[in-house]
Design brief:
The complex is a heterodimer of chains A (248) and B (377). In chain A, helix 4 packs across helix 5. With 248 residues, chain A is of the alpha/beta class. Chain A is built from 6 helices and 12 strands. Chain B has 377 residues and is of the alpha+beta class. Chain B folds into 2 domains: 169 residues, no CATH class; 166 residues, no CATH class. Chain B is elongated. The two termini of chain B are 31 Å apart. In chain B, 43% of the residues are buried. Classes of the chains: A alpha/beta (248), B alpha+beta (377). At the A-B interface, helix 1, helix 2 and helix 3 of A face helix 1, helix 10 and helix 13 of B.
C-alpha cells in the first residue's frame, strides 16, 4: 500500500461573520496517498475550492488538523504555511496564472527561484519539465503566444519542476476544449503514477472521471462519497489535434 | 541575473505609459533637486569669490561684520600695530564700498569698488584678458569685467568714465568676474579706491594678515583681538562661511533653495509611490501566484524594491544628463549652477531613498495579500 502523503482530519472552515457566516467545510477527513490521482467532485458552492485552499496550506481551517509527509501544519503562521507550500505542494490553477512578461522557461524557473534554486541547473530543470509536458519546442515562447492547452501545460511543468509530493489542481481543464482537457488529464495521470507523488484534481466535469484512481464527492461542505477505480488505459491525443480522447 | 530582477524589470517596462509617467516624475523631481542644490552651491561660491581670491592667512574685520560687502570700517592706523606683532609677516589693507559710475553719456550706474595695494598682490583681479594688473598702480586706473562693458559704457583698454568727479581709465579687462548683486566690481589701487568711495585714508575695510612660517595662528589671533579694539580675527574659511551663511540664510535665499529641493523630493516620492502602488495593484494576481507557489514575503518585497531601484537608477541617469546640460548652459551666466561629485552622490542617495520609501505603500498592499485569491480570479 502506498504511503499517505497528506492526511486531514476533522477539517471545518467557517467563512464570514454574523449573519453572513457560512460553514464552507464541515468535518472533512481524508488522506492522499502516493501514486493516486484523486478527484474531488461536487457542484458549485459545495466547498471544493475552500477545501483545496485548506489542503494547499493557503487557508487556515477553523478546526481540524493536516499533516503533510508526516509534518503537522496546524498552528503554522503565514510564512510557515508558505514554507509547506514550497516544500511539498505544486499548484495548477484554472486560469493558469502564468506571468505574461516571462517566457515559458522563466515561468517554470520561477517556481525554483522562490525555493532558492537559481542558475544554470534551475534553467536546465525547467526546460526538462517543459519537455516532459510536451513543450520542448516552446521553451522561449511567452504565454500570450501559447494556446490555452499549452499555457496549462506550462503551469503543470511549473507545479512539477520542484518535485513536490502533492500536486493540487483546481479545475485544470475548465478553460480548455475536450481534446486539450483530456490530454492534460493524461499528463496529470502520468505524474500521479509516481508512487512518491499524489495528485488531487478539483473538478465538476464528469468526463474526467476515467482519469481518476479515486473520486471524492463533496456536497454542502461535507464529503458524501468515495469511489475507487481500477487504473484504466486511456487513449488521448496530445497537443490539441482536434480529435476527442477515447477511453478503452 | 536573478529571476526576481528579470520579473521586476519586465513588469516595469511592460506598461510603457506608466513607465514614462514614472520617469517624468522622477526626472522632474531629481532635476529640481539638482538645480536647486546646484544653485545653492553656485550662490555660495559666488558670494565668497572675493574672499577665496585673497592671499593671506587672517582677516581682521570690524566686529559684527556679516559679509565681504559689509560697509563696516576699521581704523587704518591699526595696520601698523598689527604689523609689529609676533608672528606677523605682513599686513595689507583692503577698501571696499559702493559708488556711482558716470558713463560717457552722463548716465549713472552703481559700482562696487575693490581697492587693494596692487604691489603686494593681496587681492588682484583674475582672468585678465586685456591689459595687466600692474597697470592698476597708475592713479585712476581700474579693471572691470567684460560682462558689464555695455552697462559701464566701455569696450576696450583706454576707455574712460568718471566716478565722483574723478577720471577713470580702463587699464585691464577681466572675463567672468560677476557680482551676485549684479553691481559691477571695479578693481583699483587703494588710494584711488579711497577717492572713488569717498572714504578718508584713516579708514579701511579689512586688514589681511600674512603670518611668518611656523607662527602660532591662535596666538596671533588673540594678540590682535587684545591689541586692536572692536575687531574680529577670522580665517579665510571662517569669513567665507560667515558670508555664505549671511547671504544664504539671513536673506532667505538659501531657505528658498532648500524648500525648492524639498518640494522636488516630495513630488518625486508621491509620483513614484503612486505609480509603484498602481503597478503593484495591477500585478496583484502575479504576486498572489508567487505567494501561492510558496514564495516568502521577502521574495515579493525584493521584486518591488528592484522595481523601485530600477526607477531610481534610470531616472537619475536621465536627470544627470539634463543636469549636465543645465550646468553647461549656466556656466557663464549670472548665477552658474555648480554640481560637484559629492552633490551627485548625495542626490543619487536621495533618489534611491526616495524610490525605496515610495515602495513602502506597494509593500504594505502586498503584505495584506491573500494567496487564496488565485482560485477566484
Amino acid at each position: 500500500m502506498s504511503s499517505v502523503l497528506l492526511e486531514a482530519s476533522g477539517l471545518s472552515k467557517v467563512l464570514g461573520s454574523g449573519a453572513a457566516q457560512v460553514r464552507a467545510v464541515k468535518n472533512v477527513s481524508l488522506a492522499l496517498r502516493g501514486g493516486e490521482l484523486t478527484m474531488l467532485m461536487g457542484p458549485s458552492g459545495s466547498g471544493k475550492t475552500t477545501l483545496l485552499s485548506i489542503l494547499g496550506c493557503m487557508l487556515v481551517p477553523t478546526t481540524g488538523e493536516i499533516r503533510i509527509c508526516g509534518r503537522a501544519v496546524t498552528g503554522a503562521d503565514s510564512e510557515r504555511m508558505a514554507m509547506f507550500r514550497r516544500d511539498y505542494i505544486g499548484f495548477v490553477f484554472q486560469s493558469y496564472h502564468l506571468f505574461p512578461t516571462l517566457t515559458a522557461t522563466e515561468n517554470v524557473q520561477l517556481a525554483l527561484d522562490v525555493r532558492g534554486r537559481a542558475g544554470g541547473a534551475a534553467r536546465r530543470a525547467s526546460r526538462a519539465a517543459l519537455a516532459t509536458v510536451g513543450l520542448g519546442k516552446k521553451l522561449d515562447s511567452y504565454p500570450l503566444a501559447l494556446s490555452g492547452g499549452e499555457q496549462q501545460r506550462v503551469a503543470i511543468a511549473r507545479a512539477l519542476v520542484s518535485d513536490p509530493a502533492i500536486i493540487l489542481a483546481d479545475e485544470p481543464t475548465a478553460a480548455l476544449d475536450t481534446v486539450n482537457g483530456q490530454s492534460l488529464m493524461q499528463i496529470l495521470r502520468d505524474i500521479a503514477a509516481d508512487a512518491r507523488r499524489s495528485v488531487l484534481v478539483v473538478t465538476h466535469d464528469t468526463r474526467l472521471i476515467p482519469f481518476a484512481s479515486r473520486i471524492l464527492s463533496i456536497e454542502d461542505g461535507r464529503l458524501v462519497g468515495e469511489k475507487k477505480q481500477a487504473r484504466r488505459r486511456i487513449s488521448t491525443r496530445r497537443n490539441g489535434s482536434g480529435k476527442r480522447g477515447t477511453r478503452s | 541575473m536573478p529571476l526576481s530582477f528579470i520579473l521586476a524589470s519586465r513588469n516595469l517596462f511592460h506598461d510603457r505609459l506608466r513607465f514614462v509617467a514614472t520617469m517624468v516624475g522622477i526626472v522632474f523631481s531629481v532635476v529640481l533637486v539638482m538645480v536647486q542644490m546646484g544653485l545653492y552651491l553656485g550662490f555660495g561660491d559666488m558670494v565668497t569669490k572675493m574672499i577665496n581670491h585673497v592671499s593671506g592667512d587672517l582677516w581682521v574685520v570690524r566686529d559684527g561684520t556679516k559679509c565681504f560687502e559689509d560697509p563696516s570700517l576699521l581704523n587704518a592706523n591699526a595696520q601698523g600695530t598689527i604689523a609689529k606683532m609676533n608672528g606677523v609677516a605682513g599686513v595689507s589693507t583692503l577698501l571696499i564700498g559702493f559708488s556711482d559710475w558716470r558713463l560717457p553719456s552722463g548716465e549713472l550706474t552703481p559700482v562696487f569698488i575693490v581697492g587693494s595695494d596692487v604691489k603686494d598682490g593681496t587681492l588682484e583681479p583674475w582672468n585678465i584678458v586685456a591689459g595687466s594688473k600692474d597697470a592698476l598702480a597708475a592713479p585712476n586706473s581700474v579693471a572691470v569685467d567684460l560682462t558689464y562693458k555695455e552697462r559701464l559704457g566701455v569696450s576696450q583698454l583706454g576707455d574712460t568714465a568718471n566716478i565722483r568727479g574723478r577720471k577713470v581709465n580702463i587699464a585691464a579687462l577681466t572675463n567672468g568676474i560677476r557680482s551676485f548683486t549684479t553691481t559691477p566690481y571695479v578693481f583699483t589701487e587703494l588710494t584711488t579706491a579711497q577717492n572713488y568711495i569717498g572714504i578718508p585714508k584713516e579708514l579701511a575695510s579689512y586688514f589681511i594678515v600674512r603670518l611668518k612660517p611656523g607662527a602660532d595662528v591662535e596666538q596671533v589671533r588673540s594678540d590682535i583681538a587684545a591689541g586692536v579694539p572692536k575687531v574680529e580675527v577670522l580665517s579665510s574659511a571662517q569669513f567665507a562661511e560667515r558670508s555664505r551663511s549671511y547671504w544664504l540664510f539671513s536673506t532667505g535665499a538659501g531657505a528658498a533653495l532648500f524648500a525648492g529641493a524639498l518640494l522636488g523630493v516630495i513630488v518625486g516620492t508621491v509620483i513614484v509611490a503612486q505609480t509603484l502602488y498602481s503597478s503593484t495593484k495591477d500585478h496583484l494576481d502575479e504576486f498572489a501566484t508567487l505567494r501561492a507557489m510558496g514564495s516568502s514575503n521577502r521574495y515579493i518585497y525584493i521584486v518591488i524594491i528592484y522595481q523601485a531601484l530600477l526607477n531610481a537608477v534610470i531616472g537619475f541617469c536621465i536627470a544627470s544628463l539634463i543636469g549636465a546640460a543645465v550646468v553647461y548652459a549656466t556656466r557663464e551666466g549670472a548665477l552658474p549652477v555648480i554640481i560637484t561629485p559629492w552633490l551627485m552622490a548625495a542626490i543619487f542617495a536621495i533618489t534611491l531613498v526616495m524610490c525605496i520609501a515610495s515602495a513602502m505603500g506597494a509593500i504594505l498592499r502586498v503584505v495584506r495579500l491573500d494567496p487564496v485569491m488565485v482560485f477566484t480570479r
